[in-house]
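Box 3.1 A note on notation
Throughout this textbook, protein chains are presented in two layers. The first layer is the amino acid sequence; the second is a token string describing backbone geometry. Keep the layers aligned when reading.
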Amino acid sequence: MDKKIVDKYEKLLKGHKSIKLEKIIEISTPKDFKKNDLVFYTVFFDNLKIWLLDEPKKEKINKNLKKIEIIDNRITKEYLLWFLNKKEVQEYIKELSSGSFAYSHISIKLIKELKITIPTLIEQRKAEKEEKEFFSGLGSKYQILFQKVYKEYQECRKRELDFSAMALVGFLGETFLLESIKKLGVKKYIWEGKMFGYLIDVVGKNEGIPEEDLKFYRKISKARNNIHPFKAVQNKTNINKLTKEAFKAFDELIQRNGINFE
């Protein structure tokens, strides 16, 4: 194993009370998956992704999809999600996994052998809050830029400058998706230089971006791709409909992810 990766993982645990996952979780393959179940695939591309299901799954369930159930009330589901998706943990899991160059496999036994820190509930809530804060990993210059663009978007909406507003929504939507992908620890060569549509339906879908979010991004991408003057002249009614759907999707995306521009 790569000593640097092992050292980073052990440093994460150092100074905190830790425990093996086998003591606090159970992993199963139920017939039906419920909304907000904590899940992961044992076969994965690049990084192991652990996420909360947006909606129930009852049909065509992938045999590699597993459910994590917490059996110890010292940790919350949200904290476990935050911890397992940390870069140090993801790199360590990658070292433990086996498989080809493109796809890796991790056994349930190895997952259960992982150690996790057990902080106080107050510390857990703080970690969960940081994970949900979209701007937490961005510098102040980026925050100021996004705030400025968002204010311009709001002004265009008020003045019914839909084409201008749509261009701004396209910029913000693509940026949000890209930053979300980066926060998942996806390697640069996978997302760098890729078009919005590719980020949505290839990178985002494979790397664990919630499907509900991807639906919103698709509406934004579709509307942005159709604000070309020629298309607008040829089908004005459809453009109006697409932009309205995109604006609604964008507003819901912000609310759903707790993105605050203040």
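The CA atoms of residues 41 and 62 lie 8 Å apart. Residues 135-257 form one domain.
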